[in-house]
Amino acid sequence: MLRIVFGRIQSRSFWNDRWPTMAIRCALVLGKYPEAKDIYERSQKRFSSSLSLKLLARDVYRFTGLPDQGQAEWAGVFEMVRKASWRYSSAADQVQLGRYLLAEGRDAKQILELFYDAVRKNNPKYPDVYIASAELAISKHDYALAAQMLETAVSLQPSNPDIHFLTALAFAESDSEKATAALQETLKLNPNYVDAYLLQAERAIDREDYDAAEILLHHVLTINRFHPQAWALHAVIAHLQGHYTGETALLDVATQFWQTNDAVFHLVGKKLSQKYRFAEAPTTSDAPYS
């Protein structure tokens, strides 16, 4: 796909920003970071006002050793929208803008009401607004709202693996059967859905099945040999098995392109704190997870 899109970018034979946006996302998933940067910079010559492309710039530059440039591109989004707000009134841009403002730490309730609810009212059959609403709800641990949004989303776009993966997250704590079924459907629709394998690896680590976790992480690394979260979970396993030198080396690999990747350190901290908390938990019959 990247080869096809790159050829189209060079020949200028595409008429909207959808192709380069998809290609950049694909390149990032596959760990083809220089290609993602090249596609982004070529597309900017034609789609300099594209919100969907601008919102990818930060990660494109973070993973190519230029975090300051990525941050500058990201910071410019607000001014770009402010100067020509009329240009970003479509459902797609309103949802993207909501995601941007959430990432900026703006009030989630206001974004839900002013952006997502408004889009749903005017475009009730637009799947991405239900996906974005579910993402927001999951981030705030409002799993009932997430499930409600995803039920509509799957009726509109049943073959979208993102919806099924979010469904797995929404039911992870309340209904393990539904969560497992949703995860299986995710991988049925996309056998290389990286986040599904990472979630399964986390679960395997939680039950101390490190061999199973290693197999799942190996599969992720066959898709993207640089995947930071996969290497971070390898580091967690190394720590739990007492291989502290190996843990340090694995964290270096996890952050080789983006040294200040908070997601890596947050994931490691989360998994280790869970392990230590479980280890110290009461062992009486009424204790959870006993």
Treating each run of at least 4 consecutive H or I residues as one helix, how many helices?
16
User: What class do helices, strands and sheet pairing give?
Assistant: mainly alpha
Average predicted local confidence, pLDDT: 90
Total beta strands: 0
Distance between the termini: 48 Å
- What pattern of helices and strands is seen along the backbone? HHHHHHHHHHHHHHHH
Major sheet: size, sense and barrel closure?
A: none
Q: What would you note in describing this structure?
A:
- The chain has helices at residues 2-11, 18-30, 33-44, 51-62, 67-83, 91-103, 108-122, 127-139, 143-156, 161-170, 176-189, 194-206, 210-223, 228-240, 244-254, 262-280.
- It is mainly α.
- It is globular.
Key features of this structure:
0% strand, 290 residues, 16 helices, mainly alpha
List the helices and strands and how they pair.
Elements lengths: L1 H10 L6 H13 L2 H12 L6 H12 L4 H17 L7 H13 L4 H15 L4 H13 L3 H14 L4 H10 L5 H14 L4 H13 L3 H14 L4 H13 L3 H11 L7 H19 L10
Helix pairs in contact: 1-2, 1-3, 2-3, 2-4, 3-4, 4-5, 6-7, 6-8, 7-8, 8-9, 8-10, 9-10, 10-11, 12-13, 12-14, 13-14, 14-15, 14-16
Provide a brief overview of the structure.
Helices cover 73% and strands 0% of the residues. It is an all-alpha fold and 290 residues long.
